[in-house]
Amino acid sequence: MLHPDESVIPVVEHSGIARKAARPATVRACLIGVGVSAVLLFGMGEGGVPVFAQSSPNGLDNVGARSADQEMKYGTARYHEGAFAQAAVHWMNAALKYEEGGHVKAQCQALINMAHALQSEGQIRRAQRTLQAALKLSEQTGDRLLTATILAQLGTTSQLMGKYELATEHLTKALGLAREETKPALVATVLNDLGNALAARGQFAEAIDVYEESRSLAVDTKQPELSATAHINGAMALLQNQQSADAQRQFDRALAETQSLQDSPIKASGLLTIGLGYQDLHAALVSGPLSGMKQEAGNARSRETGASAQVGGNLLRQSSEAFVAAGEVATRVGDTRGQSYAWGYLGALRERERLPEEALAYSRKASLAAQRLNAPEALYQWQWQTARLLRAAGQEEEALAAYQRAVVNLKPIGHEFSVGYQGRHHSFNESVAPLFVEYEDALLRRASTVASPEGKQQLLVQVRDTVETAHAAELQDYFQDDCVATAKTHRGTGMLPAGTAVVYPVSLPDRLELLVETSAGLKQYGVPVHADVLTNEVRNFRRLVQDRRSENFLPSAQALYGWLIAPLQQDFAASGITTLVMIPEGPLRTIPIAALHDGREFVVNKYAVAVSPAMELTDSGPLQRTRGSALSLGVTDSVLGFPAKPGRGEEVHAVNALYGGTSLLNNQFSTPSLEQEIRNSGGGIVHVASHTEVGNNAEKSFLLAYDEKISMDRLAQMVGLLQERNQPLELLTLSACETAVGDDRAALGLSGIAVKTGARSALASLWVAEEQVVPELVKEFYRQLQDPTVSKAIALQRAQQKILSQRGTSHPSFWSAFLLINNWM
Predict the structure, then answer these.
(1) What is the pLDDT of residues 629-654, one digit of tens each?
(2) Is the dihedral of CA 311, 312, 318, 324 positive or negative?
(3) Name one Pfam family in it (predicted).
């Protein structure tokens, strides 16, 4: 777990790349990615030898008068100052000028440099797109060495995006080209990055061998910085391979080698990484690796025993010394970014050592440096660290302001905040979730003590907005694309309708808070249940509710009702609330709220229920009933190893009978036919009666067509064709969807299906319900929707009530799996 005195720290790469790392500063270090930096930053001369551009004075005016070569030099100068955004602009200008002059190879080099700066800035997707453009240019030139360079960097960006197989593929191709061209210096750098990719995939033994080969070649080709890099990375791989004693010896040797380098930003970042490595080693020797579950994020760090402190004290001292040395080197060479990280890391370490005044001073210095650089990926972390220290000191007002600044600076970074440690992609819970939960906790505590109604409302609005930001960031982390930003642009506006309540359950370590929004405003309800108790009950309920042979789920259903619904029901009755829109988080996404029980009846008999990952991602306008017809699809045969499901044919025919349109069954339901039919669709309903899996990452999620598995990315591209005509899909139904029990990440993906595909609403199942029941439930849902006075949420409620009322199908395993996601109107 992440504790309150741990930061999520970006890792400064040896080559100057600042990969934004979702990681506790005091727990994890990172492998350093060279990314063929000398070639990328300075261009290649004859024979592939790097050509080093000279630094030039900063000149941001009179852009049109500068030559492309001058722009390249300015970019290099800004890059070495740590001003990556400015460097990217200079190199972009150079690329445009080279293009105007028809200098394709030089244009390609400028794009490579630009991508390197974007990657350093943390804009991984933009860097990758730039590299793909450069790759096309390099293929035109026929320059195999240039192509190898780009492929290697594409491997690094793929790794940063969590696409480890693709990263290995790119790097292996680059390595082959470099060997064929007999360029041992480039081979050495590519080997280092290939080692990073192997380590990210957990192949530590192979990575150790690759790093050693890289280091040997670096020595032979007189690349001392690369030699030190591979040395450090080898130490990290040894530690990851649980060879702690060997790792410590290699860190010590790497430290001596790095200290012997000439002062440079590369030397500073190497020292930083060694300092982080010593902290990782300390954690491994003393307390083992720490996890990052959000519900525990607010717990205080357990105190180390005297024996543990003795074991790890020397390692923490070495870590501190490495950070101090890094800061000194960065100061001497004018590396403001290196200074920021050195001071930030020292602040985190002093916080750990319970030296709050020193920790606060370092954190503030780090923040100022990051502000000078305009580096939000660093700034939000030091502001977060500052907020935590201020809160611990009882300075609540100052702490709240610092938390708010941290959240504001986190927003422009996008989903890539959780990329970093060894290029590994970390879940949201392992990265920035603790920032949000700490801020939410502080705001809610403050709101509970404010007497003024206006002041309380202001604080509760801040809580709501923070929860919304957290959920949107988490969803973007899951899908790894810009679907969240797209969804925000399509969101409808307006007040909540009467009779509707939006419920935000906020699970904190020591309690549950229910934030409820109605047309009358926001209200806060505190529930004394600890996060771990709530999570355990959720897990029990989800496991038991699917077993239709017993009613063992009832105790959990009633306990959860008591925590999530009972505190609200009196106010709901007084306000005439009939529809609940739940904005669940974490484990609560894995359960059907409609199946909670008050001891007499299920929630579904009291309220229509919808769920959404965030209201800011929900188009809350009314159902567009007159536009388009249905496209109903299904697979009943056994295909691609999945069993036959004859009942799905009945489901497809039922939808087609009610709404008309087109139906595609079995071999008619192919990927090309689906795309063509969506192109011809009027934007109404797409109903899919075929196996659909939602995994713990978007790459593992698919729906089954007759000819292949259609990824969520591909499905989103198809549905997006409607948005090109300004006709978003009204409803996407996935009636045979399945998420694994206890898989919070998969449930997150399910909750975001409408956002990802661009549909206004989705109807999907948490698990595959009984085949004989689904057609009847689906038919009743669509029949109810034909009534213009009935909302989607009420249509689902009535369909579920119908199944519940029938003999033999009253158990919630038959009817409660279906969730209405996003627009409920």
Answers:
(1) 789 999 999 999 999 999 999 999 99
(2) negative
(3) TPR_12
pLDDT digits (tens, 9 = 90+) for 583-616: 999 999 999 999 999 999 999 999 999 999 999 9
Q: Which residues of 746-780 are buried (b: 16+ CB within 10 A; e: fewer)?
A: bbbbbbbbbbbbbbbbbbbbbbbbbeebbbbbbbb
pLDDT in tens, 40-82: 443 433 333 333 333 333 444 455 679 999 999 999 999 888 8
Mean pLDDT across the chain: 86
Per residue in 5-21, pLDDT tens? 322 222 223 332 222 22
Asked which of 129, 162, 181 is the last residue of a domain, the reply is: 181
Q: How many CA atoms lie within 13 A of 314 on its CB side?
A: 6
Task: Establish if 550 belongs to a structural domain.
Answer: yes
Task: Give all strands (DSSP E) within 550-670, no chain letters.
Answer: 579-582, 608-611, 630-634, 662-665
pLDDT of residue 304: 45
Note whether 606 and 683 are same-domain residues: no
Domain identity same for 557 and 682: no
Assigned domain for 758 exists: yes
* pTM, two decimal places: 0.85
Q: Which of 128, 140, 110, 119 is nearest to 40 (CA)?
A: 110
The verdict on 681 and 544 lying in the same domain is: no
- Kindly state the percentage of the chain with pLDDT values over 90: 71
pLDDT above 50 (res 227): yes
What is the predicted pLDDT for the residue at 802? 98
Residue written as tokens 């290995």?
168
Q: How far apart are alpha carbons 705 and 702 in whole angstroms?
A: 9
Both 567 and 637 in one domain: the answer is: no
Together in a domain, 637 and 563:
no
Q: In this structure, are strands 737-738 and 11-12 parallel, antiparallel, or unpaired?
A: unpaired
pLDDT at 763: 98
Question: What's the pLDDT score for residue 377?
Answer: 84
Instruction: Compute the half-sphere exposure of residue 588: CA atoms within 13 Å on the CB side of its CA.
Output: 27
CATH value at residue 601: 3.30.420
Tell me, what's the pLDDT at 711?
93
Instruction: Identify the CATH number of the domain in which residue 93 sits.
Output: 1.25.40.10
What distances in angstroms separate CA 706 from CA 324, 692, 763, 775, one per listed residue? 61, 13, 22, 20
Task: Confirm whether 313 is domain-assigned.
Answer: no
147 Cα distance to chain centroid: 30
| Other beta carbons less than 10 A from residue 796's beta carbon | 27
Buried b (16+ CB within 10 A) or exposed e, 127-157: bbebbebbbebbeeeebebbbbbbbbbbbbb
Per-residue pLDDT for 694 more than 90?
Answer: yes
Average pLDDT over residues 802-824: 97
Which one-letter DSSP state was computed for residue 504? E
Q: In this structure, what token pair is assigned to residue 686?
A: 């797409």
Q: Where are the strands (E) in 641-736, listed by range?
A: 662-665, 685-689, 692-693, 702-704, 709-711, 731-734
Tokens of 498: 């009467």
The residues, any chain, with a CB within 8 Å of residue 726's CB and separated by 6 or more, are none
Distance, in Å, from the CA atom of 636 to the CA atom of 644, rounded to the nearest integer, reads 5
Q: Please say whether the dihedral angle defined by the alpha carbons of residues 772, 774, 777 and 782, taken in this order, is positive or negative.
A: negative
Q: Cβ contacts of residue 100 below 8 Å, gap of 6+?
A: none
Q: Report the SS3 class of residue 729.
A: coil
Are 672 and 810 in the same domain?
yes
Whether residue 601 is found in the same domain as residue 636: no
> Which domain range does residue 710 map to?
630-822
Alpha-helix residue ranges (DSSP H) falling in 637-670: 647-659
Q: Tell me phi and psi for residue 665, to 5 degrees.
A: -125, 135
* Domain's final residue, options 586, 617, 648: 617
Q: How many residues does the chain have?
A: 825
Q: Look at the chain and report how many structural domains it folds into.
A: 3
Looking at the fold, whether 509 and 652 belong to one and the same domain comes out as: no
